[in-house]
Amino acid sequence: MAENVLYYNSNNSRYYYKDVKFMRTLKYSRQRESILEFLQGREDHPTADTVYINIRRIYPNISLGTVYRNLSLLASLGEICRISCEDGADRFDAVTKPHYHVVCRCCGRVEDLPMKWEIDEDRRAAQIYQGRIDGHTTCFYGICAQCLEEEKNDEKSAENSLTAMA
Amino acid sequence: MAENVLYYNSNNSRYYYKDVKFMRTLKYSRQRESILEFLQGREDHPTADTVYINIRRIYPNISLGTVYRNLSLLASLGEICRISCEDGADRFDAVTKPHYHVVCRCCGRVEDLPMKWEIDEDRRAAQIYQGRIDGHTTCFYGICAQCLEEEKNDEKSAENSLTAMA
DNA sequence: TTAATAATAGTAATTGTTACTGTTTTATAC
DNA sequence: GTATAAAACAGTAACAATTACTATTATTAA
Q1: How far is CA B36 from CA B59, B74, B111, B112, in A?
Q2: Number of structural domains, chain B?
Q3: What is the pLDDT of residues A46-101, one digit of tens each?
Q4: For residue range A138-148, what is the model confidence (pLDDT) as tens digits?
Q5: What's the CA angle centered on A141, arms B110 and A133, to 5 degrees?
Q6: How far apart are the first and last CA of chain A?
Q7: From residue A91, how far is each of A111, A114, B91 by CA, in Å?
Q8: pTM higher than 0.85
C-alpha cells in the first residue's frame, strides 16, 4: 500500500507524486501551500469555510472550490486529517498523529484532548472483525469550560430577575 | 439534568413529556412509532432516506421532513442514536447502549463490533478536561470482509486478462 | 364535542460540498 | 528563454442532506 510519495523539486517547493490509483503528478500550488501553513498554525480545527475566509486575506480571489479541493487532497495525502463530528461541517487538523477530540454539544467547538492514545484498540478490534481494520477515531462529547461558565452566569441572572420581580 | 420523562396514556400508546428546555408535551404519532419500530427491527444502521423509503410502504405519503424531524426527536429523547461518519449521510441505530462501529472505507457500510465497551474512557478523559464529558463515540475504519473478497476477485481477473493478452 | 396544540404533508429554502468550464500556473523538454 | 502538456485555478452551476415554512390533520385534555 505505498501510496503517496513526497518529493522536493529544485526550487525546494514541494510537490507530490500521487499513487497508482490516479496516476498523476501533483504540481506545486501557492494556494495549497498556504492552506497547509494556515492549518499548521492553528490550534483549533477550522472548517473549510473558516479556512476560506482566512486564506482570502492572502489570496483575495481564491475560490471556495479550491479550498475544498485542496483540503480533500491534503487529507488523502495524509498531510492533514479530516474530523467529522455530529454537527454540520467537517473540520481539518494539521496534527496527523492520532489523538482524541472533545466536541462541545453547546457551541460546537472541537478541542484536542492531550490524553495518552490507546494504541491497542485497533489490534483488539481486528481480532474479532472479519474484515481489515486500519484505524479508528474517538470523539468525546460534553460541554466546554466556557459554555459551563456561561450557563452558570445565565442561571444567576435568571435568579436575580426573579428576585427583582418579587 | 432530568430531561425527557416517558409516560403511557390510557390507550397505552406512548407519548412523551419533553424537558424544560422546550416546554412542550409531545403527542403520540403513528409515524414516529413506526419509525422507531422499523429501526428496532434492523441490524444495520439505516440513513434517513432508507427509513423514508421503508416507512412509505406503511404510510405511503409520509414526508421526508417527518422522517427527519422524528429521527432527530427520537435521538434527542435518547430512544435512538445518531451515527455520523466521514461519508455523507447520518445513520441511525435503535441500540442506544454504547458500542463500537466499523465503517467500510470502500462501500460505506456501518457494522456493529461486538467488542467489550471500554467504560473507563470517559472518566479518564474527564480527569484532564476542563469542561464536562458526558460520553464518547469510537468509530473504526477499514475494509469489510465483502469488499476484501471483491478486491481479491478483481485482482485475479486483471491477472487473467494480462495473461490472455500475452 | 370542543378547544388547544402537536404533528403532518408538501414544498421551498439552506447548507456543505462537488462538478464543470474556460483560463492561468507549473514543470519539463527543447 | 520558449514551447508544450497537464495540473490547478476562479467562478459558477449543480448536488445531496437537511431544515424551515405553511396550511391542514390528528391527538389530547377538558
Answers
A1: 14, 8, 19, 19
A2: 1
A3: 999 999 999 999 999 999 999 999 999 999 888 999 998 777 799 999 998 999 99
A4: 999 999 999 89
A5: 30
A6: 72
A7: 11, 18, 19
A8: no
Measured over the CA atoms of residue A56, residue A58, residue A60 and residue A61, the dihedral's sign is negative
Q: Are A92 and A52 in contact (CB under 8 A)?
A: no
Biggest CA-to-CA distance, chain B: 78
Residues with CB under 7 A from strand C: A 9-11, 13, 15, 25, 27-30, 47-49, 64-65, 68, 72, 88-90; B 24-27, 29, 31-32, 59, 61-66, 69-70
Between CA A81 and CA A87, with CA A82 as vertex, the angle to 5 degrees is: 150
Domain residue limits at A22: 1-85
Instruction: Report if CB A27 to strand D is under 7 Å.
Output: yes
Cell numbers 468509530 correspond to: B139
d(CA A28, CA A8): 10
Q: Which residue has the cell 486478462?
A: B161
Domain of residue B130, CATH code: 3.30.1490.190
φ and ψ of A60, to 5 deg: -60, -25
Low-confidence ranges of chain B (pLDDT < 70): 1-23, 155-166
Residue with C-alpha cell 460505506?
B108
Closest in B104, B131, B145 to A144, CB measured: B131
A43 with A79, same domain: the answer is: yes
Chain B interface residues (partner A, CB cutoff 8 A) = 82, 84-86, 90, 100, 102, 104-105, 113-115, 118, 121-122, 124-125, 128-148
- Out of A58, A85, A112, pick the residue that ends a domain: A85
Is A125 domain-assigned? yes
B32, B73 Cβ separation under 8 angstroms? yes
